[in-house]
């Protein structure tokens, strides 16, 4: 047994009670330059906190239940000022029993934090680690016992990745498993061997039992660090686990032949010791990529320009047919899905994003969402070092809600020159400038004389806080990422910074306090209103504002160069104004920074449908840069997935005409008439398709059945073999008999499309132009005749 120091990156984390140890055993698997490392730390104790004044009562309850506990006096207190004591337990079972025992009589703090997470959190370990201990070489990995871990912020792993995809019937009975990556390219297929092209490596299996056995063999041999797929946790591994249980076998797909473990709740949590499983859909969303739907077929088409091999509306039915009649084609389909996932991960840098997100937050690579958990990871150890335990939900005792972002009333119409100025990271900048912070609030309330005034009786300490320093660090790190061309790191930091307010404004976060969140949003309201006032004092008209953006009208006769010069002058002026204002009224340094973002020429602000008042969060503008121009749609039908391709094309053509330098209002009337004529002539039949995801299983829809479900049920009544599953995108149309599955031969209800697509889109433009006509005397308007 030797002693050495290794560096690695955490792939999985576990905690369990060991037969050979009195306390809790922690197990961390690492990816390293030396291969997989299994790190074992024994004799650990799980902990939660209670107030000192309840210690005696707690001891009596635990003694009566024969639950062993070790009370430890600590220099920590609750936000209410009451001193706390730590309760240590030698196993998680005792901790869980104590939590239940105390449920109605003793208030527990931080009782929901797993010790395997707390151990890393308190050491500021976020993915990368230094590890030392007693080292032994095992079969395929290093084992380090009696280990000591230290944060390693510089280590970035080179992960071995494998893409996995299964095919099965509607009941989850397995047909095949595709495995592509890390030098492996094969499909495991149930059935008799077929002669087939050498381009696809098919390993034929007698039945599901042999299929799962070979899966274990391939994973053990290939030994990936990370397994990727599409809905791979919620579907593929959940089905694999269910089939293994049905067959009475243990699915030992982890390293060292460890079994997988799946827990379901708010989300499905999969533990695969020694490996991590990362889902493409979750990672795309975490990285804030936006698509109309996240099906593999749609993402592959949008990102790679490639299509899945099965395009049938009845995809499940076609998979079943191919398994029964054409297994070679099914193998090609299964393999291609694996390849598409690999290519998407590579092209969109999703591996890199997952790694830097873990390095910044300490969250597991595979963790979906997790903004609250990320905040806890970052903030809790800092809070402990300041002498406080974290509060529980609702400890503040306040019932009011904080308002959302400030949205100004808009002035609808068509404009020649609109400048948009944005406050850069407004909410984080407010938090940094005005020292808005959970600890800062408590310290400020305890010493209000020199504190910073917030809203709703909040006051914040000028010196004792953590979030302003954290935001400063993230801001500098992001700028460095930009300067050194690290786009994924920059994007991950941006997401974390933007989530800070959302977490503090979430009632599901233990640090939520409406005084905190309202001091951010109401300060934002004040900043937007004051900025508008300063703009108007300079003689400019503000036509709209939304949370951190302000839309300023400038003279129609100005050239693009003049508009850009004005935008930059306004940016400089407003920033100086805020520096002076905050120094004078708060004796603070301003970190607010407004940027001149866009010159729209022209720009259109619609009315609210069927009203004369201006819309919010909906507009269209044209941006010209050099010889190139593009029309930007915000919140309009052309960027919404619940409108057809026909409606989107119609709206685009209307705005291309509206924004043309030779525009005449009569052109819009002609476009409406032309689209109406071509609609009824059947020219757009292929573009009248609605697409909607099936959010539940078909049988779960009993009341208020939406159109896409009506279409599926109608089709299934006529075609009993038609199969769909939850999550599938349904393509349907409105026929004369109601909603129907699109088949290319439907008898379409053109008058309905006219009223639901053409009329609302064109009316939104004409309504705003009528108002604009009255304001600006544009001349005769020709309204469409439907």
Automatic annotation (TrEMBL):
EC number: 2.7.7.7
Pfam families in the cross-refs: DNA_pol_B, DNA_pol_B_exo1, DNApolII_N
Taxonomy, superkingdom: Bacteria
Listed GO MF terms: DNA-directed DNA polymerase activity
Catalytic activity field: DNA(n) + a 2'-deoxyribonucleoside 5'-triphosphate = DNA(n+1) + diphosphate
InterPro entries attached to this UniProt entry: DNA-dir_DNA_pol_B, DNA-dir_DNA_pol_B_CS, DNA-dir_DNA_pol_B_exonuc, DNA-dir_DNA_pol_B_multi_dom, DNA/RNA_pol_sf, DNA_pol_B_thumb, DNA_pol_palm_dom_sf, DNA_pol_type-B
Domain DNA-directed DNA polymerase family B multifunctional: 379-750
Top EC category: transferase
Keywords recorded for this protein, A-Z: DNA replication, DNA-binding, DNA-directed DNA polymerase, Nucleotidyltransferase, Transferase
Ranges where the DNA-directed DNA polymerase family B exonuclease domain occurs: 194-298
Record-stated family: Belongs to the DNA polymerase type-B family.
Designated name of the protein: DNA polymerase
């Amino acid at each position: 047994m030797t002693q050495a120091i290794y560096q690695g990156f955490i792939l999985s984390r576990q905690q369990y009670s060991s037969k050979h140890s009195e306390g809790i055993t922690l197990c961390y698997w690492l990816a390293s330059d030396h291969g997989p490392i299994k790190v074992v730390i024994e004799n650990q104790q799980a902990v939660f906190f209670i107030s000192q004044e309840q210690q005696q009562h707690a001891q009596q309850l635990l003694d009566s239940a024969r639950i062993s506990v070790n009370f430890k006096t600590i220099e920590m207190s609750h936000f209410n000022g009451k001193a706390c004591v730590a309760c240590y337990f030698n196993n998680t079972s005792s901790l869980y029993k104590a939590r239940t025992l105390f449920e109605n009589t003793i208030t527990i703090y931080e009782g929901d934090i797993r010790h395997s997470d707390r151990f890393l959190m308190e050491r500021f370990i976020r993915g990368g680690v230094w590890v030392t201990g007693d080292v032994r070489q095992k079969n395929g990995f290093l084992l380090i016992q009696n280990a000591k871990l230290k944060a390693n912020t510089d280590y970035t792993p080179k992960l071995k990745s494998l893409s996995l995809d299964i095919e099965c019937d509607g009941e989850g009975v397995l047909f095949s498993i595709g495995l592509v990556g890390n030098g492996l390219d094969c499909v495991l297929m149930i059935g008799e061997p077929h002669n087939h092209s050498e381009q696809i490596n098919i390993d034929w299996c007698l039945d599901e039992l042999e299929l799962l056995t070979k899966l274990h063999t391939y994973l053990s041999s290939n030994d990936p660090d990370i397994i990727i797929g599409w809905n791979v946790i919620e579907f593929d591994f959940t089905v694999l686990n269910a089939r293994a249980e049905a067959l009475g076998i243990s699915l030992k797909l982890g390293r060292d032949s460890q079994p997988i473990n799946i827990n379901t709740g708010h989300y499905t949590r999969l533990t695969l010791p020694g490996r991590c499983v990362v889902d493409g859909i979750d990672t795309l969303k975490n990285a804030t990529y936006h698509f109309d739907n996240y099906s593999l077929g749609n993402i592959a088409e949008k990102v790679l320009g490639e299509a899945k091999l099965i395009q049938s509306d009845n995809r499940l039915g076609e998979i079943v047919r191919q398994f029964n009649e054409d297994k070679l084609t099914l193998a090609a389909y299964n393999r291609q899905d694996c390849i598409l996932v690999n290519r998407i991960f590579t092209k969109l840098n999703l591996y890199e994003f997952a790694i830097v997100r873990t390095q910044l937050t300490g969250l597991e690579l595979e963790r979906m969402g997790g903004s609250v958990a990320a905040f806890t990871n970052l903030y809790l150890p800092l809070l402990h070092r300041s002498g406080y335990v974290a509060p529980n939900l609702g400890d503040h005792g306040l019932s009011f809600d904080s308002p959302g972002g400030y949205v100004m009333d808009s002035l609808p119409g068509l404009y020649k020159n609109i400048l948009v100025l944005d406050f850069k990271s407004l909410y984080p900048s407010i938090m940094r400038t005005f020292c808005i912070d959970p600890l800062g609030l408590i310290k400020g309330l305890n010493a209000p004389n020199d504190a910073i005034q917030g809203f709703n009786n909040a006051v914040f300490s000028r010196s004792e806080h953590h979030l302003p320093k954290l935001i400063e660090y993230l801001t500098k790190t992001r700028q460095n990422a930009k300067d050194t061309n690290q786009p994924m790191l920059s994007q991950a930091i941006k997401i974390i910074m933007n989530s800070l307010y959302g977490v503090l404004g979430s009632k599901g976060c233990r640090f939520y306090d409406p005084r905190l969140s309202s001091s951010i949003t109401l300060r934002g309201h004040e900043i937007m209103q004051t900025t508008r006032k300063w703009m108007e004092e300079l003689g400019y008209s503000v036509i709209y504002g939304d949370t951190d953006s302000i839309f300023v009208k400038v003279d129609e006769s100005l050239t693009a160069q003049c508009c850009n010069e004005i935008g930059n002058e306004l940016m400089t002026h407003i920033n100086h104004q805020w520096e002076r204002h905050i120094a004078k009224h708060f004796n603070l340094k301003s970190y607010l920074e407004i940027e001149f973002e866009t010159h729209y020429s022209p720009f259109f602000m619609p009315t609210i449908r069927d009203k004369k008042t201006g819309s919010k969060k909906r507009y269209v503008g044209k941006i010209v840069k050099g010889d190139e121009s593009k029309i930007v749609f915000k919140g309009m039908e052309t960027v919404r997935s619940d409108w057809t391709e026909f409606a989107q094309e119609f709206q685009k053509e209307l705005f291309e005409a509206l924004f043309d330098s030779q525009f005449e209002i009569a052109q819009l009337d002609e476009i409406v008439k032309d689209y109406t004529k071509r609609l009824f002539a059947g020219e757009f039949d292929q573009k009248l398709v609605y697409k909607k995801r099936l959010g539940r299983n078909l049988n779960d829809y009993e009341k208020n059945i939406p159109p896409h479900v009506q279409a599926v049920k109608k089709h299934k009544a006529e075609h009993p073999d038609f199969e769909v599953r939850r999550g599938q995108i349904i393509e349907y149309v409105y026929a004369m008999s109601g909603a129907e599955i699109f088949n290319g031969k439907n008898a379409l209800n053109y008058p309905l499309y006219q009223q639901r697509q053409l009329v609302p889109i064109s009316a939104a433009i004409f309504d705003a132009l009528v108002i604009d006509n009255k304001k600006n005397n544009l001349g005769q308007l020709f309204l469409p005749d439907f």
